[in-house]
Amino acid sequence: MTRHVVRLARIWPGVLLTVGFLAFQACDGLADPSTASITLRGHAADLTVAHFSPDGARIVTAANDRTVRVWDAKSGHELLSLTGFAEGVRCVAFSPDGKLLATASRDGTAKLWDAHTGKPLADLAGHTAMIEEISFNPAGDRIVTASHDKTAIVWDTKGGKVVSLAAHEEWVTSASFSPDGKSILTSSSDTKARMFHAESGDVLLTLDGHDSMIAMARFSPDGSRIVTASSDKSAKVWDSKTGALIATLAGHTRGVRCADFSPDGKRVVTGAADKIARVFDAATGQTLAEMSGAHRRLISSVQFDHDGVKVVTAAHDNLAALWDARTGKLISKLEGHEKSVEMAEFSPDGRFILTASLDGTAKIWPAGASAP
Known about the structure:
This protein is mainly β. The protein is built from no helices and 36 strands. The chain has strands at 2-6, 11-12, 15-16, 20-26, 36-40, 47-52, 58-63, 68-72, 78-82, 89-94, 100-105, 110-114, 120-124, 131-136, 142-147, 152-156, 161-165, 172-177, 183-188, 192-197, 203-208, 214-219, 225-230, 235-239, 245-249, 256-261, 267-272, 277-281, 287-291, 299-304, 310-315, 320-324, 330-334, 341-346, 352-357, 362-366. A hairpin with a 5-residue loop joins strand 30 (299-304) and strand 31 (310-315). 50% of the residues are buried.
């Protein structure tokens, strides 16, 4: 076995010497993703989120140390550090062309940045409580923010407020654009999801059927359906044109925290506080696969890869796990974080997995292993 180290980070008593770290172990090739990773070190507090850029060349991380950092995804070297936040940064998003970064923090403020130079471009001021999610529309000229002040707001890229979406009775847990950019989907702790016109702010649909808060809502890739994940132990699939309920995804014994459509929209994967992920038929609600036995605490995120063959899960047991989406068989555990893993996502080409942890680091793992 050989071990290669590039830009080693060491902590001497009280001193952090470097911010970049790249280490991997190999034994006749890269065989075990659980022992091979790039670790992104530099944040001084809980790391809340990490995302690949649309082309997969860069990574953005955000943390409670009031910084956002941009990294080279191949080398792990830090490219940018964005500062000036009054409180910890809760969420961040690349624009579809990768040229802009939108950030949102716990004090209810959002900012827009040049993703290559780190130059601040606009302040998005209007919320009165923490922002839970921020995302771009497909064209990259609109941004939506979801806040604990019970509203979502649509912005232009100069910082102007386009419209405020104020139909929810409790805090808004998620907000995202439809694939065509014409609608915005929100979810709330008021047990409802709503679809709004992206320009006028008119309510187009109200999805009412859950008995407890909705943790998140997402459109299918073609925009024809919506999935909602709720702490009432279920997820539901809805028709995005009529609001009709298509299927209830049942079987979890604790709250469902996250859900993702497969790339073809035919399946949904869910993750729950019962430590289990499930794959369902999106049309019938039938369980197709169960992913259990790897995690010891609640699952915080789930995602299909780009061809729908694999699923990655992140959990509060300090692990991420890679699964066969068709059979539910565990491919590998991604071990190395020292605290809860808040999220995991595949790179755009499906070759790598990015994880973000409350231990203050992000890691990049190869996703090319096959099931044992």
